[in-house]
TrEMBL record:
Name of the protein in its database record: Peroxidase
SUPFAM superfamilies in the cross-refs: Heme-dependent peroxidases
Cofactor binding summary note: Binds 2 calcium ions per subunit.
Active site (record annotation): H69
Species for this entry: Oryza glaberrima (African rice)
Reactions mediated catalytically: 2 a phenolic donor + H2O2 = 2 a phenolic radical donor + 2 H2O
Classification via InterPro entries: Haem_peroxidase, Haem_peroxidase_sf, Peroxidase_pln, Peroxidases_AS, Peroxidases_heam-ligand_BS, Secretory_peroxidase
Principal location class: secreted
Amino acid sequence: MEYSYSYRFMLVCSVLVLCFNTRGARCQLSDDFYDYICPDVYTVVQQHVYAAMRTEMRMGASLLRLHFHDCFVNGCDGSILLDGDDGEKFALPNKNSVRGFEVIDAIKEDLENICPEVVSCADIVALAAGYGVLFSGGPYYDVLLGRRDGLVANQSGADNGLPSPFEPIKSIIQKFNDVGLDTTDVVVLSGGHTIGRARCTLFSNRLSTTSSSADPTLDATMAANLQSLCAGGDGNETTVLDITSAYVFDNRYYQNLLNQKGLLSSDQGLFSSDDGIANTKELVETYSANAHKFFWDFGRSMVKMGNISPLTGDDGQIRKNCRVVN
Ligand code: HEM
Ligand SMILES: *[C@@H]1O[C@H](CO)[C@@H](O)[C@H](O)[C@H]1NC(C)=O
Ligand SMILES: *[C@@H]1O[C@H](CO)[C@@H](O)[C@H](O)[C@H]1NC(C)=O
């Protein structure tokens, strides 16, 4: 009864911009969620992200990826931040790979001092990703807020739901579709690889010294350089995802793909694979030629990704410490 009433109420409300559930809690993300209850949230997150990127420019990229990996598993609910052996942190796509937890912790600590138990960890991650993009030279987009934090981590969900650089574009598109994102979102959000780094173990399958055959869609000079980086190492050596402008958020990532200089096979495949030619190649060409359109669409797709199954209203909680449930 209670449920169906509240459901009908939500349907009616969703026509309006604001939405409240039966107990008066908001049930939809908005760009003014903290305006009265914690207006300093923007300044605090911004200052921490700025300082972290001054120390290490890559942190902007790491925070962007953290948000992506949070959203794809049980929605954007901060579940990736939870500690524990069965946490998402230790899922294959995240282990020894996702970064930025200390930055989130520091932001949370400050926010607990000014507005205790008001700002969710999931929102902190979403905002930090937005500033990571902005301070890398990327687009400003209005980050929608009002998420609440999840109560469980889902390690198998992370193992199964996060895309791998080794799978065909078609199955990457399927994983995006599974969370409500489309083929355009795949191409636009892959543009996140205009910043940040990746480990040899994630692309050495494309090199002839470490695999039986070299990838013909990888530029020969680039392949030679990658080979000397990775040869004899343990797979942990890293290189930049965007060889032409490593830490600058721009559309050169797409221009690289036109020149067979995508790092991961899931990058180059957007342009060069049969799946890519059928589904994504044209979009790569569009974004390689139009930075403005890429920026605009990236912001739009980030908002869409940030809207994956958020917990709102009375669901979930506001964690006091992002690493553990209250
Ligand atoms: C389309 C499917 C995707 C695949 C297969 C993929 C795969 C990867 C891999 C393998 C790495 C390197 C990880 C490591 O070295 O440990 C990486 C890094 C990264 N990814 Fe993706 N990714 C995808 C989509 C995205 C999306 C949607 C975003 C964000 C919008 C994103 C943002 C990043 C960033 C910023 C980095 C660098 C992180 C850092 O330097 O700390 N990726 N990705
Ligand atoms: C974990 O994620 C999967 C989707 O990959 C979902 O079916 C399952 O219900 C989730 N489990 C929990 C405990 O949230
Ligand atoms: C890479 O680094 C991690 C953590 O520093 C370590 O546990 C692992 O053994 C290293 N080597 C490989 C091949 O992953």
